[in-house]
Amino acid sequence: MDLASVNSLSYEDFVEVFGNVVEKCPIVAAAVWSRRPFSSLADLEASYNDFIDTLPESGKEGILRLHPDLAGRDLQGGTLTRESREEQGKAGLDTLTTLEVSRMARLNTEYKGHFGFPFVICARMNDKVTILRQLEERLG
Amino acid sequence: MDLASVNSLSYEDFVEVFGNVVEKCPIVAAAVWSRRPFSSLADLEASYNDFIDTLPESGKEGILRLHPDLAGRDLQGGTLTRESREEQGKAGLDTLTTLEVSRMARLNTEYKGHFGFPFVICARMNDKVTILRQLEERLG
Fold first, then answer.
1. Distance from the A140 Cα atom to the nearest Cα atom in chain B, whole angstroms
2. What ipTM was reported for this prediction?
3. How many CA atoms does the CB half-sphere of A50 hold within 13 Å?
4. Chain B residues within 8 A (CB-CB) of chain A?
5. Interchain contact, A30 vs B54, CB within 8 Å
6. Which of A68, B29, B135, B140 lies deepest, with the highest CB count within 10 Å?
7. From the Swiss-Prot or TrEMBL record, what is one GO molecular function term (chains A, B) (predicted)?
8. pLDDT given at position B140
């Protein structure tokens, strides 16, 4: 889809296409639509960042709270969004051993109890070994 | 559910219970959770209003853009959330004649083109006659 097409989308279609750029937060796309026309892909991306920057801290935490746990019940139960399933799959989180699954669950629970939001990391740019290590380090 | 139970909910359970208070915007509940413990139901409600007040105008418009059209394709297609279906049903919007459905669709389209968000009114406190009249008046 080229930029002219993006700029001519109704808000319904814009939310349909870009609504899950911020997982489970279609309000971000619905708000960003106000900024059209976008002059470039970078401008579209900056509009997302700018909107998130305007949110109070609780709103930014809210975004994290809607993010699925890594290797959590959404992945196990098959209820992840397609985008997250692909990302978690690339990191090898869909082929954890039973032991790794329970270790990840224990660490996730501890992390959420401590910080009030889930552990989030770019699964596309990490694998299960580095993800588990980072999770332990942040709790350390 | 009493106040002590609400205050002891994890953010996952809080979002599960209150996530659709603002239709399709679970981020509001996920953010409001930061304000617990709530001292009363009024305090919980005020926390919702306060969070929405902090949003830039585009964010408030974004909330409206995620709201289903009255008597729109979600109602016709059976994809409305339970809460909205009940509200629209109480206003008689689920028993419109074919003529009324097409009149409502035409006015909704005109309204969205003009304002950039859908016509929203408290369906629980209105019926189809007053809803159609108000919609025409706002476009007048």
1. 23
2. 0.91
3. 13
4. 10-12, 15, 24-35, 51, 54-59, 61-63, 65-66, 112, 116-117
5. no
6. B29
7. 2-oxo-4-hydroxy-4-carboxy-5-ureidoimidazoline decarboxylase activity
8. 85
Q: Which residue from A1, A42, A48, A50 is spatially nearest to A25, judged by alpha carbons?
A: A48
Task: Determine, for residues A59 and B31 on separate chains, whether the beta-carbon distance falls below 8 Å.
Answer: yes
Domains identified in chain B and CATH numbers: 3-56 (no CATH), 67-139 (1.10.3330.10)
Residues of chain A with pLDDT under 50: none
* Pair B87, B35: CB distance under 8 Å: no
Within 8 A by CB and 6+ apart from A126, the residues are: A91, A134
Q: What is the pLDDT of residues B51-78, one digit of tens each?
A: 999 999 999 999 999 998 888 888 888 8
Of all residues in chain B, the one with the smallest CA distance to A15 is B66
